[in-house]
Amino acid sequence: MSEPNNLARPAHPTFWEAFKYWLKLGFISFGGPAGQIAIMHQELVENKRWISEQRFLHALNYCMVLPGPEAQQLAIYIGWLLHRTWGGIVAGVLFVLPSLFILAGLTYVYLAFGDVKFVQGVFNGIKPAVVAIVVFAAWRIGSRALKNNLLWAMAALSFVAIFALNIPFPYIVLGAGVLGFIGGKIRPDLFKVGGGHGASDKGYGPALIDDDTPPPAHVKFSAARLAVLLIVGLALWGTAMMMLTEPTLLDMGEFFTKAALVTFGGAYAVLPYVYQGGVEHYHWLTGTQMIDGLALGETTPGPLIMVVSFVGFVGAWTKQIFGPEALFLAGFAGASVATFFTFLPSFLFILAGAPLVEATHGDLKFTAPLTGITAAVVGVILNLALFFGGHVLWPKATEAAPFSGGFEWFYAMISIAAFLALWKYKQDIMRVIAACAVLGLIYTFSI
Fold first, then answer.
1. Hey, where are the domains in the chain?
2. Most buried of 135, 158, 160, 296, CB within 10 angstroms?
């Protein structure tokens, strides 16, 4: 990368300077994982220059292969690089804490006043926008990650595997990773994309953590440190589980722990698993409520996987775990449990694995599997778009008759218009959602 000669290497930020940035990020991190990663790149790589482009992308590649929200994990990683373990913990917690409180408040409004025609109208417009957003996510990731016909073929195989063959996503990820590893040996030129986030040719000046910056002592691998982290993590999980004496909350703790460990590919890939468990198995909420939850998640800051907080809130509210007089308290307890058990593994994955990752800069045997996995994720996201599109455009359909009950042409037009606004006219995602909400409101009051 070329570097401007007139820029000096930035000073190391204090812990509180970083704290203020992570807190700000928690309130402005809209736009799903792609938007959040772009926000961090612009601020941390381009403006503040706390980390170089290559080091940023190397960390991102590791986060992409992990189960859980890659944007939040990236924040933990960079926070850890800057200020050791506590820096990573603060970055990760502040990334999701504002969203928890905002989403809990909005979910209460949704449940308490969801029958009001005004609220229904807003959601009627947002839901088709969500379909467009998911399609746009598939296109955006695919256009960056699928740089050759082989990767396009892997994405297509992934789509067929999950859509037609119902193969669980973890197996698809494993298969894609193995293919990427083998492909990196046979045709390394086809697997140098690095997870779909190709390096930029732009120079932003010397970074605090630059490509050639010697690793500080705290980023070097230590078996003793790893053992302590694992013991502390298991102790936190076990203590929290023992405190959950209410059956519904205990089920949530177990379910969201599994969701955090066995689902790969970010929020768009985990949603079918959460839908299957929350809607079909535990009956915490309905399929329509699940889509409404995704709509809320798209309109609030924080990782999109915060939709689990919505699921927890609605489930505890529906089950009235503290009685009919304490519905909000029940909902907030459910949201908190879902959030804690979903995000706890992310801290362990980063704090335990990052020292090993820091020793693998530019090693193709590590980056090639990530490239294969990213290709597979594109196919899974497209499948999710069809899943949501079916529920929105054929709301009265059943599993036995998926296209029955009438086609919602107006919502289809909203989805098309929203996609064009995002894709062709590069509109901000929040503006698109707001415009769709207004259209839904007008349509609802006109029928």
1. 15-198+221-395+402-446
2. 158
Kindly report the length of the chain: 447
Q: 249 to each of 99, 279, 390, how far by Cα in Å?
A: 20, 16, 31
11-15, 103-107, 396-400, 443-447: which range is least confident on average? 396-400
- 44 vs 29: CA distance, rounded Å: 14
Q: What's the CA gap between 310 and 441, in Å, rounded? A: 23
Per-residue confidence band for 196, with pLDDT thresholds at 50, 70 and 90 = very low
Task: Report the DSSP beta bridge partners of residue 264.
Answer: 67
Question: Could you tell me the pTM of the whole model?
Answer: 0.73
Contact of 7 with 205, CB cutoff 8 Å: yes
Q: What span, in angstroms and rounded, lies between the C-alpha atoms of 418 and 103?
A: 23
Ramachandran angles phi, psi of 303, nearest 5° = -60, 145
Cβ atoms within 10 Å, residue 431: 11
Please name which of 288, 333, 282, 289 lies closest in space to residue 312, comparing C-alpha atoms: 333
Tokens of 108: 């209460």
Residue of 16, 37, 30, 28 lying closest to 90 (CA atoms): 16
Read off the pLDDT band of 284 (50, 70, 90): very high
Round to whole Å and give the CA distance between 349 and 345.
6
Nearest to 35 by CA among 76, 58, 69: 69
DSSP reduced 3-state for 394: coil
* Lowest mean pLDDT segment, chosen from 115-124, 144-153, 340-349, 427-436: 115-124
Cβ-proximal residues to 181 (8 Å cutoff; 6+ apart), any chain: 365, 368, 369, 372
